[in-house]
Each structure stands twice: as C-alpha cells, then as structure tokens.
Amino acid sequence: MSVFDTVQRVVGNRLSLILIGAMLLVLPLLMTSSFQMRLAVVVWVYAMAAIGLNLLMGFAGQVSLGHAGFFGIGAYSVALGPSQLGLSPALSLPAGIAFCGLLALLLGRPILKLKGHYLAVATLGLGMLIFMILSNEVELTGGPDGMRVPRVVIMGWKVKGTETWYWITGIALLISVWLALNLINSPTGLALRAIHDSEVAASVLGVDVARYKLIVFVISACFASAAGGLLALYNGHITPGVSDFLVSVQLVTMVVLGGMGSVGGSLVGAALIIILPQFLTVMHEYEHAFLGLIMILTMVFMRSGIVPSISKAIRSRRHDSNS
Amino acid sequence: MTAILETDGLSISFGGLKALDNVNLSVRPGEILSVIGPNGAGKTTLFNLISGVYKPRSGKVLLEGQDVTGQSPDKLAGRGLTRTFQNLQVFQTMTALENVMVARHLHEKRNVLAHLLALPSVRRQREETRKRAMECLARVGMEHYADQTADSLPYGALKRLEIARALALVPKVLLLDEPAAGCNPRETEEIDEIISKIAAEGMAVVLVEHDMRLVMKISNHILVLNFGKKLAEGNAATIAADPHVIEAYLGLEGDEGEAGAVAE
Ligand SMILES: Nc1ncnc2c1ncn2[C@@H]1O[C@H](COP(=O)(O)OP(=O)(O)O)[C@@H](O)[C@H]1O
Ligand SMILES: [Mg+2]
C-alpha cells in the first residue's frame, strides 16, 4: 500500500491533469448536439468555482455559504468593466478577479474569526448582501433584468460560439486544477490541512492560522470570480441570479458530493449537479425530489464523497489482490 | 547562564476557580525543569499560558528576557518556543512524516504565489523539508512509521510523534505535557533518553510528568503545583523530602512504585 501511495503521490498530480486533458479532447467527439457542448461549458465553469471552494472547505475546513456572491462579482465585472470603466471585456476578467480578491481580503479578516455555524451564517449574509446589491442597483446593473455582456475581441477576432468557449473554459479548468494541486502539495497546502486537523497544534508549530484562512479564502474567491466571469462572457448576458443563495448551496453540494479535499471530486460533483437535472426532467414535478434522494443516498453510502470513496474501494481491492 | 524562559506572577481564573495563582518559574538553556502536582493542579494551564494558547489574567512571560505575554502561539514558535499536548493533538489525516513536515513551516519560504505555480525552488525546498522531517522521526525512532497515517499509529508512537514534530521546529524552549503518560516502561525509557539528549544539546525543557521515577531521574529542578499555587520547589532530593509534597501530592498518588521511586 505504501508503494502504491508513493507512486500515486509522484504521478498523481500529472496523472489527474492528463486525465482531465484527455477527457477534454475526447468529449467533443462523443457529443451529438450543441446542447451537450453548452452543458459541458457550464460544467467546466462551475467545476472551477467548486475547486476553489474545495480548497477552503476540504483543505482548510472552513465553510462558505456565500461563494455565489464572488461568482456574481466576477460575472458582473465583465459587464461593468466595459460599460463603466471602458475596459475591454478580456481585461475586465482579470480586473474583476483582482477586485474580488481584494474584497475577500477585506471582508475575510473579520468573518474568518468566526467558526463553524457562525462562519456559515456570516458567509451566507455576505453572499446575500452581494446578491441584493446586484439586484437593487438598477442604474448600475440593470436590476433583476440583468445586463448585456459585450463579446470578447482579441486582435480583431470575435470570440464566440459554444465550441470556442468549450476550449477556453476547458483550458481554464485545466489551469485551475493545476493551480489547486500545486497549492495542495505545497507547504501552504500542508499548513491548511494542519489547520483543518488541529488549529492549536498548527499554531504552536508556527502556522499563522488566521493568515492562512484568509489566504485560502481569497484564493477561493478568485477561483469563483474567474468562473463567474467566464460564464458571463460565454452567455453574453448576466442576471443577479448567478449570485443567488441557491447557487452557493449548489457549489457546496458539488464539493461535498464529489468529495471534500478531492480536486477531481469537485469536477465530478459539478458534472452531477449540472447534468443530472437534465436527465431528471423526464420525471417532471418529481425532478427535485429525485435529485434530493440521490444526494441523500450518496452521503449515506459514500460519506467521504464520490471520488474519495471510489478510489478507496479501488485501492483496497488492489491491496487484496496484491497480498 | 541566564534564564531563557521566565514567568512572573502568572495567574488565570476560570469562572470563580483560580486555575493558576501567581506562579514564577525560570529555566536555563540545557536545563530540565519538571512541573508536578496532582490532577487539576494547573500544570496544563501553565503550559497554555506560556505557549500563548490562553492569555494570563495577570503576570508576565519572558522569553530571552523579552516580555512576550499574550503573544500568539505562532509568534512564540517563531521565537523558538513550542510544546506538545497531554491530550494528543496530532494531525490525524496526515502521515507521520507530513505531521513533522508541518513543523518545518517557519524554516521554509512562504510565498503563496510560488506555491501556486509550483516553482522549481518550491520543489527543491520540499526535498530539504522531507529530509529534515525524516531526521526528526529518526531521532524518536519512528522512521519506519513515516508513511503511515497518524490515525493508524499506536498511542505510544503518537506521543513520540508529537516530540518529533516539536523538534522539527528546532526550538530553544520545549514544553512537554505528560510525554510518557500511557506509555509502557520501555517506551518511557525511550522518552527519558530522548529528553535527556535534547537537553544535553542545549534546549531548555519544561516537563510535566506523572511518572516520578522519570521526573526524579532527569530533572535539574522541580516545581510542585497544588490548586494552582506553588507548593514547593527545588532539586529532586529536596522535593522528595518535603513533607508538604509528600502529604499533598505523593500521598494522593501514592501507589507503591511511585512512592518507592521517590524514596530512592
Ligand atoms: N479552558 C478551561 N475552562 C475552564 N476550566 C479550566 C480550563 N482549563 C483548565 N481548567 C480548570 O483548571 C484547573 C487546572 O486544570 P489543568 O491545568 O488541566 O490541570 P493539570 O494539567 O495540572 O491536571 C482544573 O480545575 C480545570 O478544570
Ligand atoms: Mg494536564
């Protein structure tokens, strides 16, 4: 088992990237409609946000029920950047990410002093606050009707079409996975895991607990805003619904269902939460009930989430056949 | 040599209870100071105050002559003070090696951007950290446990893992809270050797321990607490002969083995 673990640690990172890369390449060959490709774009984007949230929840052990707020800020920044500041849409994306990171830095400081349920409620409030601002500042954001997002133009090339966005968001997803895995396997990742397991032990060993919580909060907010920005650029239109509380809940569900602390799990979780409802529409009014049932069953039978549970099962089978 | 760690009138109360009342102590580099006393005497509370886990209501903590009262545990770790825990605080989901690697934190470059981008320097540093952590595991005889997750290790190993972790910080002052509790005689013997060795290298050790044989053997100085107050202080012989100590503490704990050890 220890040999297998060591091998996995060495190739694990690269392997996940190769697997996801291969999936990105193969999927379009299997798709039969542009609707499926559309769905894939949405999955990649939500997966990015979920991976960021997983860094906060699965590694540092801090919950956020307000991440849709950051998602929404990213989305609106690519609309507001051009309309308010005259920035190009392409430049508005990084500007929005930077703004969101700064906001998370300022708000995270007081909020992250809270623990457990209190932190959950405070982040919930933060998300709702952002939603209210986006809905109510009608002059700026167009209110509930939303805003148009101008097309990205790069050196005269108009970036449009679902297939183009499939590749853009796919590459963005790959980069997100790469960054997340790098962080997890760095001293920062180790410090975050230490905080998760025992804050007091981490701190007497020199880990500045408050600082690391803040760092990962900011990073996860940046992931969410990047995802929101990409979704808005792809859709060409944005409404306050992107920052709705339900989106925050969806993101948390993706993380937990896929597996806390598993980057691949967040991708699987995002795929499930986005794609499953499409299949379930045949069940008409029972759609939501059925989705709920699936979530309950997954949590009961795969407590640690889909990906960790499956990989553990595979590992123990391998272990049995080796011995 | 002057004291590296001193406390001056350290006090704290929980509700109406004076858990610690005006406690003074001082340790010099290379010295082992043992703090003993019955359960609930305030020994762990003393460690919590010194290590910054709790803030004292009054009194001072001086580290290398500087007032560090009320500083956070990570700041104090940066100044060279760390501790272990009576009720284990290992990182359960990590391997033994990773547990120790956490304690190399302050010796590493902590540039988050470099970590996100996995720059080559980060990888090189990782190897160095791994090597150092492995050395610390070896010092407590745990190198063969390196890749096992902490939650699969036996209790005695976890006790030593906490010591290895503390050593990886390369502290100047180390507070050990009952490192031999729950360990068998052979494990206790090993812990005795480890502590003596690290003190011999110049580290100041403050030891809370119930095993009287161990305490009497390795301490340069002993402080006895009872109900949060100093009851007695001195070297092993003085303490063993002190009638207050025998009455308040040793009499309470008084099983044959421990009483015998004191009488030696
Ligand atoms: N966080 C706390 N809250 C309330 N009471 C505490 C706390 N920590 C310690 N105490 C009390 O302080 C006294 C000393 O406890 P402690 O320092 O753990 O004793 P020892 O380590 O000597 O056995 C005990 O009566 C204990 O119940
Ligand atoms: Mg105690």
From TrEMBL, chain A:
Molecular function via GO: branched-chain amino acid transmembrane transporter activity
Pfam families: BPD_transp_2
Membrane-topology descriptor: Multi-pass membrane protein
UniProt xrefs under CDD domains: TM_PBP1_LivM_like
Membrane-crossing segments per the record: 12-31, 43-65, 85-106, 118-135, 165-184, 214-234, 254-276, 288-306
Keywords: Cell membrane, Membrane, Transmembrane, Transmembrane helix
Example of a GO cellular component annotation carried by this entry: plasma membrane
Record localization: Cell membrane
Name listed for the protein in its UniProt record: Branched-chain amino acid ABC transporter permease
Taxonomy of the source species: Bacteria, Pseudomonadati, Pseudomonadota, Alphaproteobacteria, Rhodobacterales
UniProtKB/TrEMBL annotation, chain B:
SUPFAM superfamilies, alphabetized: P-loop containing nucleoside triphosphate hydrolases
Residue ranges annotated for the ABC transporter domain, each copy included: 5-252
GO biological process: D-alanine transmembrane transport; L-alanine transport; L-isoleucine import across plasma membrane; L-valine import across plasma membrane
Keyword tRNA processing: no
Protein keywords: ATP-binding, Nucleotide-binding, Transport
Listed GO MF terms: ATP binding; ATP hydrolysis activity; L-isoleucine transmembrane transporter activity; L-phenylalanine transmembrane transporter activity; L-valine transmembrane transporter activity
A single Gene Ontology CC term: plasma membrane
Cross-referenced InterPro entries: AAA+_ATPase, ABC_AA/LPS_Transport, ABC_transporter-like_ATP-bd, BCA_ABC_TP_C, P-loop_NTPase
Claim: Metal-binding is one of the keywords in the record: no
PANTHER family linked: AMINO ACID ABC TRANSPORTER ATP-BINDING PROTEIN, CONSERVED COMPONENT OF ABC TRANSPORTER FOR NATURAL AMINO ACIDS-RELATED
Protein name as annotated: ABC transporter ATP-binding protein
Species per Swiss-Prot/TrEMBL record: Pseudosulfitobacter pseudonitzschiae
